[in-house]
Q: What sequence folds into this?
């Protein structure tokens, strides 16, 4: 029995963003085809100032793969005291036909990649076909990933960006312009960025509304990334009134996504949520229907996105003879 | 950042049963000292005839170690179709100070070892000091592990064994007599074995009572191993009436251990459960108090037993320069 070991460097070279987008579509479709098991995650909270480690598992009958992802985060003293990042990740990939451990891969890059791809998948399903201006609130790693993915599925004419820290905003502008040749306007306030948007991405660690309802112009597609647990919030809940609301997982989004806020405030009812994105990808429900409607995609992240992306990385590694093989038993 | 890889063969040579017993005591004590986090496990059920894979995680503040154990089982076609056992296991061990992945080890042996050790720990705390005859119902791998562990903590004068299959019973007798030089009586019925016991071990896959209340003589210590989920049962619930009942985890045993049956039948109340074994090991509650009382240890198995045992294996490997180091990232 042989297990493939893939380092962070291996993983980096083994999957393109276009491939990640394909695997995330595959994940959403499998989820809404009843082919997925994703039990509630296990979380361990370390004593302060340390953060936490979470374990997420998923079984996908479509690819007969089981994955377990361990993700740590919030260890601020790691770089100085232990010489490692403040968060790390590991993925175990099992062949579901036998439960053989097929692969152990570094998981540091996986969450960022598959979360970035989720926004791009929603753009294909929900944004106006003539959308060209992207606004991004937040300029961290996930904001970069969103841009990197969305440019695979549309031509971005210009980007309007905003974050609270001017130095980070300037660095983001420089990086994106150099990497992709897309002009970036460093907005002087969140409102200016939002008002320019055909597509609005929020990828902050916000714990209260950053975007107000009156700022968003008709026809905007919103990608709400930041809110994936209780206590987080990026939007004034009023934005959801009358919008076409699409979620990755209904059960997750109504309990801990951005969608929880307008539900809790009584601004929308659960029946007013249009559906899960997999239903649109499968053709079971329509995507955008009018140019002037506001569409919202609430992405909380699912284990099954890790599953399909990790499986693609593994398949590419096998095809390209990458990685290191190890026998845990004879 | 370096991660230690340990094969099944490595693990086998890296820990003695006496050490496993020590780590299980350590686990029980940490659990009852408020130093342990063990979230509810995640389970994935594969389509028939395949079985399942479970993920159990534990954080032990006493050794600053986090473990995740993946355990599969119930894949009857694995040997013929895939050339691997019907169940396998993998353990990830993280340094809880940073969440660095310190070790990936084969986990095939771990559950058997730490479950075997649990019975021996209970013997020290609950069996009569003059106990010398052990009865064992069930003659599989776990029955062997129980004997192997108990002989580390007492002198076994003789063993009375019983199982449904005469060939397996004969093989068990031969193996145990040769391995340990302890005379084994192959009992003609379960009752005969039980009636001879100072210490009674049940390690079957029973789904209904195998042992009746009237068979158990006063002063017997019972080690109930087999029942760790709903649908399993080894004892007539009446046995629990008036016995000193000790559990590994109260929440687990009252919901899915052997203890659930007498509770469900109204034979005992939760208040009549004496306590968790860690409370006895810590001296917070007495163990056995009278030679003629029946003591029952209900063992459902805890993630924290994997934690302390895996950490010992890892420490021994580092001390002995065993295993293979691998860098998942630079």
A:
């Amino acid at each position: 029995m042989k297990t493939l070991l893939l380092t962070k460097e291996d993983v980096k070279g083994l999957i393109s963003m276009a491939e990640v987008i394909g695997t995330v579509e595959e994940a959403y479709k499998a989820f809404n085809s009843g082919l997925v098991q994703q039990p509630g995650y296990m979380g361990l909270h370390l004593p302060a100032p340390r953060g936490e480690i979470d374990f997420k598992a998923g079984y996908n009958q479509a690819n007969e793969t089981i994955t377990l992802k361990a993700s740590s985060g919030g260890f601020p003293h790691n770089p100085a005291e232990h010489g490692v990042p403040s968060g790390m990740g590991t993925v175990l990939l099992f062949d579901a036909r036998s439960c053989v451990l097929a692969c152990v891969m570094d998981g540091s890059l996986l969450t960022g990649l598959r979360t970035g791809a989720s926004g791009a998948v929603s753009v294909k399903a929900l944004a106006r076909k003539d959308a060209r201006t992207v606004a991004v609130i937040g300029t961290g790693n996930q904001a970069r990933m969103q841009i990197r993915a969305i440019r695979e599925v549309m031509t971005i004419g210009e980007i309007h960006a905003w974050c609270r820290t001017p130095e980070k905003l300037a660095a983001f502008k420089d990086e994106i312009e150099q990497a992709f040749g897309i002009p970036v306007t460093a907005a002087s306030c969140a409102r200016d960025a939002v008002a320019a948007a055909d597509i609005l991405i929020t990828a902050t660690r916000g714990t209260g509304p950053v975007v107000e309802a009156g700022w968003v112009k008709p026809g905007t597609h919103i990608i709400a990334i930041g809110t994936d647990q209780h206590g987080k919030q990026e939007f004034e809940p009023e934005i959801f009134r009358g919008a076409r609301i699409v979620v990755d997982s209904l059960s997750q989004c109504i309990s801990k996504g951005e969608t929880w806020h307008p539900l809790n405030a009584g601004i929308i009812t659960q029946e007013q949520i249009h559906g899960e994105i997999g239903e649109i990808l499968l053709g079971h429900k329509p995507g955008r229907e009018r140019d002037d409607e506001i569409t919202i995609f609430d992405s909380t992240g699912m284990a099954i996105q890790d599953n399909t992306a990790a499986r693609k990385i593994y398949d590419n590694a096998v095809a390209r003879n990458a990685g290191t093989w190890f026998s845990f038993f004879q």
Q: What stands out?
A: The longest helix of chain B spans residues 110-126.
